[in-house]
TrEMBL record:
Gene3D superfamilies per UniProt: P-loop containing nucleotide triphosphate hydrolases
Protein name listed in UniProt: DNA repair protein RecN
Presence of the UniProt keyword DNA damage in the record: yes
Domain RecF/RecN/SMC N-terminal residue range list: 2-507
Pfam family, one: SMC_N
Keywords: ATP-binding, Coiled coil, DNA damage, DNA repair, Nucleotide-binding
UniProt keyword Secreted present: no
Coiled-coil region(s): 328-355
Sequence similarity: Belongs to the RecN family.
Length: 550
């Protein structure tokens, strides 16, 4: 319920703070006194867009703050899902800055307008005469039927499952497109992949092959130089190795005489050992050299294959070719994977479709049971509201398509008078009739679901005193289960409220401003008497007002 409302610098309101109680509250005031300003302020709290025209003083910010008692609304899941602090006494604040920027807060946590609007649905239902056209909306009609049918949870589950079903259908469409494109390229990718597989690529192999090719391609030249090196080293009289050995022998003879000679001997000995090892390795390499034209040709072919593949794929290494090979393998394999994914998704869609159909059947059966109850209750309330001959025919038609709330279409057919044919509600019901039907609907829904605070904004326009009296009784009855406000010009309705607030204008200097006050019992008598007879209040009007209040 709306516990309090504070308004600062909004339209004609400079500063206002008022507390409300549960039950049935009345708001009255002359036309233009500021009742629409109050509704505008509440609209901002519920997430409507704001602009600078809302500011009374363009240099100051506008602040609207509403406190709600939500302890019985089961809204903790909403607060948790939006990462907000839950409080039984929740405060919503809306600020409009002189710059034109708007800010919103729930329990001092900044929120966007979407979050505010989502929460607002659970808090206040502002119902004015022009909103009676909502009754013609099929979704609203289903909400009415489903509340009586006890379908509300089932419809939420159905909508959630339908969302997942549609997401899967969209995924399936994307997978089919990917499969179509993949199949177009599959043959060419498979050919490229086979080429790379046939090359038997090994990381680092290219360098080894190029080295082997160089060696086999220059066997004679290499052997010639190795043999020449051996000849120079091993020639019997003048070979380098033989001469070094003679130097070593000479230094050995004087090594014991001085440390310097001994050092030279050891160094020469080291050179002899090293050169001897070099000669031995040259000899070994020379013996291993074999002129093998066949092997040379095989290596050349392998290298030419590598160079050709590198040129085709515009790379320069085997590692890069291996990366391309992996990518092609993934693309070729992906066709099989896509087909498998499609099959799995189709199975999942079929399961969801079966479940949706089952839920839709249950929802439909509950609706069929609820429709006679709704018709009976509507006729009961409308009879009280001066429409004794009103009749309803609610037609439910099963369709093949899923909608957000099942597989049904609904039509509300209405006849206001005996002998009149049924017609679509939106076409045959007058504005006054629609107002009474909407009041009847709200009264019925109050019995079946936890409605938020409801504000009836002059829905009594154009009705007689007796009907107004019945309207007030219905609203009073509704207030046993919920907080109800009625903005009215009719004394019959004003007299039924538990509390009575008056909106009025005052002029201070050159400034006009709107104010709201809670009337005392004496002030209520005067206000209702004025509503009965105008500014010149007669004694009979006073007595009539007292009678209405009693």
């Amino acid at each position: 319920m709306l516990a309090s409302l504070s308004i600062k610098n909004f339209a004609l309101i400079e500063k206002l703070s008022i507390d409300f109680s549960k039950g049935f509250s009345i708001i009255t005031g002359e036309t233009g006194a500021g009742k629409s300003i109050l509704l505008g302020a509440l609209g901002l709290v519920l997430g409507k867009r704001a602009d600078l025209t809302s500011l009374k003083d363009k240099e100051e910010k506008c602040v609207i703050e509403a406190q709600f008692d939500i302890s019985k609304y089961n809204l903790k899941p909403f607060f948790e899902s939006n990462d907000l602090d839950y409080e039984d006494q929740t405060i919503i604040r809306r600020e409009i800055l002189p710059s034109g920027k708007s800010r919103a807060f729930i329990n001092d946590s900044p929120v966007n307008l979407n979050e505010l609007q989502e929460l607002g649905v659970f808090l206040i239902d502002i119902h004015s005469q022009h909103q009676t056209q909502e009754l013609s909306d099929e979704n609203i009609q289903f909400q009415i039927i489903d509340a009586i049918a006890g379908n509300l949870d089932s419809v939420v589950e159905f909508a959630s499952l339908l969302k997942a079903y549609k997401q899967d259908k969209n995924k399936l469409s994307v997978l089919f497109s990917e499969l179509k494109e993949a199949k177009k390229e599959q043959d060419y990718n498979a050919f490229l992949l086979e080429e790379l597989f046939s090359a038997k690529l090994i990381s680092g192999q290219q360098e080894e092959l190029e080295a082997a090719f160089e060696q086999l391609n220059n066997v004679e030249f290499i052997k010639e130089n190795l043999d020449k090196s051996l000849a120079v080293a091993n020639e019997e009289q003048f070979g380098v190795l033989q001469n070094l050995k003679e130097i070593k022998a000479s230094l050995q003879k004087i090594a014991s005489i001085s440390e310097d000679y001994n050092t030279l001997f050891e160094r020469t000995n080291s050179v002899v050992i090293e050169l001897d090892d070099i000669v031995s390795e040259i000899n070994s390499l020379s013996e291993k050299l074999i002129n093998d034209p066949e092997k040379l040709d095989l290596i050349n072919q392998k290298l030419q294959t590598l160079y050709s593949l590198q040129k085709k794929h515009q790379v320069s290494t085997i590692d890069e070719l291996l990366e391309i090979q992996n990518e092609l393998e993934s693309k070729v394999v992906s066709v099989d994977n896509l087909e498998s994914d499609i099959k799995n998704l189709e199975d999942a869609i079929e399961i969801k479709e079966t479940e949706l159909n089952s839920k839709a059947i249950v929802i439909r059966e509950n609706r069929l049971k609820a429709i006679p109850v709704l018709s009976e209750k509507l006729i009961y309330f409308l009879e009280q509201l001066g429409m004794p001959n009103a009749r309803f025919k609610i037609e439910l038609k099963e369709t093949q398509n899923f909608s957000s709330n099942g597989k049904d279409e609904v039509q509300f057919l209405f006849s206001a008078n005996k002998g009149s044919d049924f017609g679509l509600l939106k076409k045959v019901a007058s504005g006054g009739e629609m107002s009474r039907i909407m009041l009847a609907v709200k009264a019925i829904l109050a019995q079946y679901s936890k409605l938020p605070t409801i504000i009836f904004d002059e829905i009594d326009t154009g009705v007689s005193g007796e009907i107004a009296n019945k309207m007030s009784e219905i609203m009073k009855q509704m207030s046993n289960d919920m907080q109800v406000f009625a903005i009215t010009h009719l004394p019959q309705i004003a007299a039924k409220g538990n509390e009575h607030f008056k909106v009025f204008k005052t002029t201070i200097g050159n400034q006009t401003q709107s104010e709201l006050k809670l009337l005392t019992n004496e002030e209520r008598v005067v206000e209702i008497a004025e509503m009965l007879s105008g500014k010149d209040i007669s004694d009979s009007a006073i007595n009539h007002a007292k009678a209405l209040l009693n």
